[in-house]
Model the fold of this input.
Amino acid sequence: MRNSFFCIDAHTSGNPVRLVAAGGPLLPHAPIGERREIFVRDHDWVRQALMFEPRGHDIMSGAIIYPAYREDCDFAVLFIEVSGCLPMCGAGTIGTVTAAIEEGLVKPREPGRVAIETPAGRVDVTYEEKGGYVESVRLHNVASYLHEADVEVDVPGMGRLRVDLSYGGNYYAVIEPQENWSGLEGMTASDIVGCSQKLRSALADICDPIHPDDARIRGVHHAIWCDRPVNYVSDGRCAVFYGEKAIDRSPGGTGTSARMAQLYGKGRLAVGSRYRHESLIGTVFEGRVEAEASIGPYSGILPSIGGWARVIGHNTIFVDDRDPLAHGFQIR
Done:
């Protein structure tokens, strides 16, 4: 049997976003969090086939659009990438909105504004359109917060590190320069991947954060290594790690949200402040702390992230059962 998927490929500030426009599995009309559970249980082969090699690669990310269950949303999104079916993806949202608007997949109720139902909650997005193209996107992300500060963890080959656990749509280990890590300068991509893998494994033995409002969102699967900016217009620089070997080419939407929540939680960023976040390749997201927020017993923020994406092509992908590698593979 051959399955066919029509995809719109784009990138958000350098990070790939593959929007599945046709061929995604039919799911019952239910809240997107429930549909996510069904997708993971019954259809995860679709994610693996489209994200893993030979049709994808180590940093591949994507999304599938569905009708919204919530009446206050324009559409719903499942985020698929090499690391799983995520609750939220900021770069994925920016790329998805850009591709969906430019290619006519969605028709907003209000021009220049869409509300998206994600597994992490409602995400409001504004965008600027010129000549039929989306020039920029600002997503108003889910409430973000500092879950735990100054967690000490022993990392093989690095020694003891002090990290903060912060939530911005996904849970992150936030690492800043310290005695046993001097910063990003001089580190290769392979160095960052290796250190991140060791850190995540070490953290799994000592912590398991659970979202106060949704127990389905739990665990530290991402790391964000933070340092001084290279670009003088930026406030900080980062490398976001996810999956098995992926480093986000953008500054990371949920990563930037988690970083701002961490800085706010430590009294280093105030409501109304701007935080321009630089990626390893020099692209920049403009973060803003829009307001305070409460997440269960925690005090946090409502962040927004401004960025851009570009559509780079149409892609019809076949997944044929005759192919022994039909459902993809990863080299670990």
